[in-house]
């Protein structure tokens, strides 16, 4: 009986340990719901002139991942024929997140100029840690797979965006920084979200919005490089109204054209 009791205690401890990593990464979603669709006009800076480059869209739906209730979010950018003559831009990002914001899966297919890669990240939560399987496929079809383990929560650039929308910025001062480990198909690197204050931004839908300004920055050659600057509505939705993209080949901007399926009333419109 004593051995049986000890075995039961051991099994219980292992079970608690296996879910602890997942539990510590949970976060309450207050910003969006399944069915939200956001669309954007995309502009590209060509020889100091901003030209219409195409479109971008983000869709979030209620879904399942390995039998678990989840959100599936996708972000797609598409350059038009005019820009294709200068530079081909085709990015598709996909992620699955649990309903309490625990990252489950990430994929990024990126065609930028002559470069094409597909990154994937699978998340597993066992033994009190976050266990990652990461893969990068190159244009020639070669695939490199690695594994990583962390005692801390790890995200990718789309899963952290979903979570960040529910951050409470009350009390944040300009320059406030949130540090986050970010995974892609090749590595896990330190990144930050930097709060830059508030501003008013006009979307391509004709509305002006009070916005919070946030920079997503990744470590590169010993210093942080800005990758994307988000202007999100200063209300409980935190909808991205404008995105400034700092790409390898230049810069691009996206301005919202339509918002559907938002969870909360949009209170950030400037009237």
What does this structure look like?
- By secondary structure, this protein is mainly beta.
- Helices cover 12% and strands 57% of the residues.
- It contains 3 helices and 14 strands.
- It has helices spanning 2-24, 81-84, 159-164; strands at residues 36-46, 49-65, 68-79, 89-98, 103-112, 115-126, 129-138, 143-150, 177-183, 188-202, 208-220, 223-233, 240-247, 250-260.
- Strands 8-7-6-5-4-3-2-1-14-13-12-11-10-9 form a 14-stranded antiparallel beta sheet.
- It starts with a helix and ends in an 11-residue tail after the last strand.
- The model is unreliable at 9-19 (pLDDT under 50).
List keywords for this structure.
mainly beta, 3 helices, 12% helix, 14-stranded antiparallel β-sheet, 271 residues, globular, single chain
Concise overview:
This protein is mainly beta. The chain has 3 helices and 14 strands.
Head-to-tail CA distance between termini: 73 Å
Q: What value does the Rg take, in angstroms?
A: 20 Å
Characterize the overall form.
globular
Helix content: 10-25%
């Amino acid at each position: 009986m004593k051995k049986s009791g000890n075995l039961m205690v051991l099994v219980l401890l292992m079970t608690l340990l296996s879910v602890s990593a997942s539990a510590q990464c949970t976060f309450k979603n207050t910003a969006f719901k399944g069915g939200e669709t956001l669309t954007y006009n995309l502009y590209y800076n060509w020889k100091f002139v901003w030209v219409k480059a195409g479109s971008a869209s983000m869709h979030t739906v209620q879904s399942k991942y390995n039998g678990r209730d989840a959100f599936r979010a996708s972000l797609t950018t598409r350059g038009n024929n005019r820009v294709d003559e200068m530079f081909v831009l085709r990015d598709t990002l996909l992620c699955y997140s649990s309903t309490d914001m625990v990252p489950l899966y990430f994929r990024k297919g990126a065609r930028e100029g002559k470069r094409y890669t597909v990154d994937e990240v699978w998340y597993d939560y066992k033994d009190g840690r976050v266990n990652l399987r990461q893969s990068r496929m190159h244009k020639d079809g070669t695939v490199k797979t690695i594994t990583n383990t962390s005692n801390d929560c790890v995200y990718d650039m789309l899963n952290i965006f979903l979570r960040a929308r529910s951050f409470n910025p009350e009390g944040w001062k300009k320059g406030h920084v949130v540090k986050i480990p970010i995974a892609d198909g090749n590595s896990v690197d330190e990144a930050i979200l930097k709060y830059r204050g508030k501003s008013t931004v006009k979307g391509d839908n004709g509305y002006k919005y009070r916005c919070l300004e946030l920079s997503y920055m990744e470590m590169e050659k010993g210093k942080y490089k800005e990758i994307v600057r988000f202007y999100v509505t200063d209300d409980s939705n935190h909808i991205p109204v404008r995105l400034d993209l700092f790409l390898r080949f230049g810069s691009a901007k996206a301005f919202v054209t339509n918002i559907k399926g938002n969870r909360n009333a949009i209170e950030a419109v400037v009237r």
